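[recover] target loaded
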């Protein structure tokens, strides 16, 4: 018997888990475009948003342009969330300073003319880009601004795009982003947590696995796994899940076995070190009703019973990953052969962080506009004999 007396609890890994300004992983995350809110959120009032440990104010001016400003007025530091949206920008409630979407101060109504301060003060702000109903922001150095990535599935003919942002469907929200996302590259947990322990939590039963039929692969834009499952009818189902840099972007197939590609690009948006939101842009066929997927129907948001006793008897990803604590302590782990995907996931992040710290472009940063305009993806499933 090994006593727990005197057990030393390690600190969280600051390199991989911290996302605030100036942290290694935070600097990596800031090299990529990140979703901050829905386009529909920007109406006639400013919107307070929090991402990567920063509090910011998003708004849309009267000309339809979106902006993202530092939340404190450059005059007396009151919050711009109480400001008034006008044709040319956002006006502070306290003394009426007017800011445009690029942080320029257009008016200081209580100052005498001529006013030299208009040209001397620049309000901090970030570039934004809207696409398919989501507002994205780039929080990194301006001289490192990358091309905006456009994925192939968004450009499929005969359909429309639908954006979503809010609490993650079925996913953890009160923990560090890393433990939530690396869970997706831990393919084997589906055969225990989602099948043998909690009962079937995916639309399809799993009928055994050949350990040699699971492989993890590093790709140009991130990583993926390819998993071969034998179905009850004797056919084989090849399932591919894909992660795109900075590995908080994922394409996951959770429907019945078929030959179909993933139609949604989803994001785990780090709010801060211990909270996250979900966002996605999904391709829908023309005339197709917007419905929850089979997996989403089984997720916590769709559970009929959300009592503590039920979650103890039927834990899902939310319980398993949040159960690692607000920030998972890697020093308590003993990683084994089945953790190949997790090790690859962390290794890719570490290399990308090192490149960022050296001033280089990390993996997945695109400088060629033509390449960024059509990024191929591979996630989905194939059923074969």
């Amino acid at each position: 018997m090994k006593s727990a007396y005197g057990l030393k609890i390690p600190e969280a890994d600051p390199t991989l888990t911290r996302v605030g300004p100036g942290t290694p992983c935070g600097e990596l995350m800031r090299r990529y475009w990140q979703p901050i809110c829905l386009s529909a959120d920007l109406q006639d009032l400013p919107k307070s948003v929090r991402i990567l440990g920063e509090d910011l104010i998003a708004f849309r001016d009267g000309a339809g342009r979106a902006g993202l400003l530092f939340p404190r007025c450059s005059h007396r530091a009151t919050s711009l969330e109480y400001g008034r949206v006008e044709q040319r920008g956002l006006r502070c409630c306290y003394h009426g300073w007017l800011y445009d979407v690029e942080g320029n101060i257009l008016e200081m109504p209580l100052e005498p003319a001529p006013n030299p301060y208009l040209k001397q003060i620049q309000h901090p702000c970030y570039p934004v880009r809207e696409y398919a109903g989501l507002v994205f922001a780039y929080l990194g150095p301006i001289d490192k601004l990358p091309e905006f990535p456009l994925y192939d599935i968004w450009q499929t003919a005969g359909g429309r795009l639908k954006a979503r942002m809010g609490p993650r469907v079925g996913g953890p929200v009160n923990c560090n982003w890393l433990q939530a996302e690396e869970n997706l590259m831990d393919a084997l947990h589906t055969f225990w947590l989602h099948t043998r322990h909690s009962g079937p939590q995916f639309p399809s039963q799993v009928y055994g696995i050949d350990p040699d039929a699971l492989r993890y692969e590093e790709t140009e834009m991130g990583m993926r796994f390819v998993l071969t499952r034998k179905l009850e009818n004797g056919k084989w189902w090849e399932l591919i899940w894909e992660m795109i840099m900075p590995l908080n972007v994922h394409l996951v197939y959770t429907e019945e076995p078929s030959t179909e590609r993933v139609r949604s690009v989803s994001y785990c948006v780090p709010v801060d070190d211990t909270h996250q939101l979900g966002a996605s842009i999904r391709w829908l066929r023309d005339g197709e009703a917007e419905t929850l997927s089979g997996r989403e129907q089984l997720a916590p948001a769709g559970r009929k019973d959300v009592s503590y006793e039920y979650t103890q008897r039927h834990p899902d990803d939310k319980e398993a990953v949040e159960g690692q604590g607000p920030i998972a302590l890697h020093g308590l782990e003993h990683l084994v052969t089945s953790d190949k995907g997790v090790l690859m996931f962390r290794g890719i992040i570490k290399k990308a962080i090192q490149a960022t710290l050296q001033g280089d472009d990390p993996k997945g940063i695109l400088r060629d506009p033509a390449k960024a305009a059509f990024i191929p993806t591979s996630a989905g499933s194939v059923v074969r004999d």
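[recover] notes: The longest strand covers residues 275-285.
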